[in-house]
Amino acid sequence: MDEVIQSAQCSSARHSSGYLHAGDPNAPLVVFVHGWPELSLSWRHQLPLVAELGYFAVAPDMRGYGRSSVYTSHQAYALQAAVEDMLELLTYLDKSEAIWVGHDWGSPVVWSLRRHHPDACRAVASMCVPLDTLERGWDGFLPRIDRAVYPEEHFPAGQWEYMRFYEEHFDQATALFDSAPDRVIKALFRAGSADAVGQPSVTAFVRRDNGWFGGAGEVPDVPIDSQVITREDHAAYATYLQQNSFFGPDSWYMNHAQNAAYSAPVPLGRVNLPVLFLHGRYDTTCETMRSSLAQPMRAACTQLTEHVVDSGHWMAQEQPAAVNEHLATWLRHLAA
């Protein structure tokens, strides 16, 4: 990991967040929020760059991950709790607002911060997951499935079939991941491919196959994809997932109803702050290129900047140069 990146801990009686940071703590704050099944480490390529641009760059391990608190109930991993974690971190860092950057499940966290705590948001950036989708539960994304790719009779929940599998067979899914976290990381962290565009995502077959990885009942042992992670990165991911279990990470998928209830009382309205969204051209799960998944975001955001990155889902790690270029240009514009 880059030598300018340091490690720290934010702890209260309620929750503890381990985090990485780079740059001057007195500078404007940019907080990077990771998703499943990642770590603050996922932002290793972005933290030094953002620090060089004159910001204090911070990336926490989200609850259930890494050096942050781990809980034993599904409800502990609802978005409201994660939002409160981020507000505690903001207070601990002696800041009143931040530029929030999210990916995967980190995206509904930063979108929820904008919805519920707009005063804490200077701007918001998201990779792969648009506004007004996951934070609204099933109703936020199920109606926007591309039925040309996912006929309802074969894929009722489209590419989100794997989420249904968590709800129906949580213990089975988690036990498989916990049996070989090192293999899971190698199998999941793969670069995107143009050949996958227009084809059903592998996540669409999890229910049909009665399990991940074709329903084989074991995790395949595949080579590390060095385009996405190094051996050192792989070891860090695997170590913490071995230590903490996949229970917490997987539980993020078990709160769709709670997340919808959290969002419902607060109308989205117009989002009148700068927003950056990066589409993954080859991301077939959070597919925003052909489907209507990004339409609510486009309708709501008055200062929206969009770019397409030639990557799969793990874009900040697969295509760090492209991500950094778009992020740097946007941040420089904010500062102008």
Could you walk me through the main structural features you see in this protein, from its secondary elements to its overall organization?
This protein is of the alpha/beta class and 336 residues long. It has a single domain, classed as Rossmann fold. It is 33% helix and 16% strand. The chain is built from 12 helices and 8 strands. It has an 8-stranded mixed sheet, sandwiched between helices. Strand 7, helix 10 and strand 8 form a beta-alpha-beta unit. The longest helix has 16 residues. The radius of gyration is 18 Å and the shape is globular. The protein starts with 5 loop residues before the first strand and ends with a helix.
Radius of gyration: 18 Å
Instruction: Order the strands across the largest sheet as they lie in space.
Output: 1-2-4-3-5-6-7-8
Return the average pLDDT rounded to an integer.
97
Q: What is the third-level CATH name, the topology? A: Rossmann fold
Unreliable residue runs: none
Q: Count the helices. How many?
A: 12
The arrangement of helices and strands along the chain is EEEHEHEHEHHHHHHEHEHH
Biggest sheet statistics:
8 strands, mixed
**CA-to-CA gap between the ends?**
31 Å
What is the CATH homologous superfamily assignment? Alpha/Beta hydrolase fold, catalytic domain
Specify the CATH architecture.
3-Layer(aba) Sandwich
The figure for the number of domains is 1
- Oligomeric state of shown chains: single chain
Helix content: 25-40%
- Which structural class do you get from the secondary structure elements? alpha/beta
Q: What is the general shape? A: globular
By DSSP, the count of extended strands is 8
